[in-house]
Specification:
The chain is mainly α. About 80% of the residues lie in helices and about 0% in strands. The chain has helices at about 10-40, 45-70, 80-95, 110-135, 135-140, 145-175, 190-210, 225-235, 240-270, 275-290, 290-295, 300-325, 330-365, 370-400, 410-425, 425-440, 445-460. The protein is globular and about 70 Å long. The relative contact order is 0.15.
Length: about 450
């Protein structure tokens, strides 16, 4: 069977689904912390306890969901039904998570409510996220087409993130107290109404994605979930373990900026809407970053390209730390963010392609294909990266004496801590990620060619 190439209509339809997923994803990872500390006035210690507990459950739930997807057989295929079901469930939970149904602040009932919704968001996000990204290998075996599909999906994913980071600061004010409010404070109403809008768009884009795409190279599995199988998949695929390490660390660095950024502009700079300008420069960088792989792949290997991405991110972050917290020159800070965002965007595209290669590597090495279980690790590593971000963020806020209700009146120690978490820690994490990738990742060159030939021949022989 020759390598099938997808149409641009299908590529774009697939990419649209990523917009909705990232609206929910971005709102959760970038703004939930601020909503809980500054609106619901929850202590950092509660969130430090909640996040690791939720991740323990994710470690159980995510691979179970991956196995369920692998064994699903419907007329629509095995991925698309779950994308729709997961999006609908996640939309409901997203709205409820950012909406206080009248529970008294500081009460035990509110802590329980937030904890339940927090865990449910992770579960419902997994229901849509795993099948969505697991679809990439099912479209085509052609390496260049896979690259383009992943690039398009990450482009639209960036659009979703851009919508969240650019419009959320204004949306929170406009849908809350209104732009006439000189202090531009966020409010419970603003968070709730904006979450509802994002939830509706999540469902709409999921339906479009499922209606336009088609599953072709689908490998079904009748195996039931077992921890033994999960551990065997992970243990037998050494490159999956390596990927989990370097991707989790680098992603945590970027999540720190997106999560702490709202505190930096709201508390340190004194105006949350300045984050929108910062995000717009980041969006420019993200757009430019999508051209890195197509341009560099003509002369460089994917390994070299990924290393280049991490170096560019590191340089951008060092420049941001100098231009922001140290020199306090907003325009130079924004320009430096373009540099970092170019590397970040291409880094994420590369990770999606790399994970598809890791699926093939697992089949090449063991003879068994475990797409959804392998791709479930992507969602899990993102949540683990967020956990690292959360631990650093809430530890920093707690140790520095940050108080959500004070906003700009917080101490200098709190403001300096926020600045360092936002721009000082991420480049350190990028360097660590670069070292792990360079020393341990081996799917490139001759081995990569052998894997592709093996998979192509296996599909041809049926």
């Amino acid at each position: 069977m020759a390598d099938y190439k997808t149409s641009w209509g299908e590529k774009l339809g697939y990419g649209i689904g990523a917009i909705g997923l990232d609206l929910s994803y971005g709102l959760f990872y970038s703004y939930l912390s601020n909503y809980l500390t500054d609106v619901l006035l929850m202590p950092a210690t509660f969130l430090l306890i909640l996040t690791p507990i939720a991740r323990i459950w994710d470690g159980i739930n995510d691979p179970i969901m991956g196995t369920i997807v692998d064994s699903t057989r419907t007329k629509m295929g095995k991925y698309r039904p779950w994308i729709i079901i997961g999006a609908c469930c996640n939309a409901v939970v997203l709205f409820l998570l950012f909406t206080n149904p009248g529970i008294k602040l500081g009460s035990t009932a509110l802590f329980i409510y937030v904890a339940v919704m927090y865990v449910l968001w992770g579960m419902t996000n997994t229901m849509a996220d795993i099948p969505y990204w697991s679809m990439v290998p099912s479209f085509t075996n052609d390496p260049s087409d896979r690259n383009m599909i992943s690039t398009v999906a990450r482009t639209f994913s960036g659009i979703g993130q851009g919508i969240v980071t650019i419009f959320t600061p204004y949306a929170l004010v406009l849908l809350g107290s209104g732009m006439n409010d000189s202090e531009k404070k966020t409010s419970p109403e603003g968070f709730s109404r904006w979450a509802l809008i994002c939830a509706v768009l999540l469902v709409v884009f999921a339906v479009i994605c499922s209606g336009v795409t088609k599953e072709r190279n689908v490998v079904y599995s009748n195996d039931k979930f077992s921890f033994k199988k999960l551990f065997n998949v992970i243990k037998s695929n050494d490159q999956l373990i390596v990927f989990m390490a370097f991707a989790m660390i680098s992603n945590a660095g970027w999540y720190l900026t997106s999560g702490v950024g709202v505190y930096y502009f709201k508390v340190v700079q004194g105006d949350i809407t300045k984050q929108s300008t910062f995000a717009m420069f980041g969006a420019v960088g993200s757009f430019l970053g999508l051209f890195v792989i197509p341009l560099m792949s003509k002369k460089f290997t994917r390994r070299t390209i990924y290393q280049f991405c991490l170096v560019m991110v590191t340089i951008g972050y060092i420049a941001m730390f100098i231009c922001g917290p140290i020199l306090n020159i907003p325009m130079l800070l924004n320009i430096a963010y373009i540099i970092a965002s170019i590397g970040i965007a291409s880094m994420f595209v590369n990770q999606t392609i790399i994970l598809a290669d890791i699926v093939d590597y697992g089949e090449f090495k063991t003879g068994t294909r475990s797409e959804s279980i392998t791709f479930s690790m992507k969602g899990f590593l993102q949540k683990m990266a967020y956990t690292i971000q959360t631990i650093i963020l809430f530890s920093g806020l707690g140790l520095s004496g940050y108080q959500g209700e004070l906003e700009t009146a917080n101490s200098l120690a709190a403001k300096n801590t926020i600045s360092f978490m936002c721009f000082g820690i991420p480049p350190i994490l990028m360097v660590v990620s670069f070292l792990i990738f360079t020393r341990k990742f081996k799917i490139y060159g001759k081995l990569k060619d052998e894997i592709h030939d093996f998979i192509a021949e296996k599909r041809q022989n049926g």
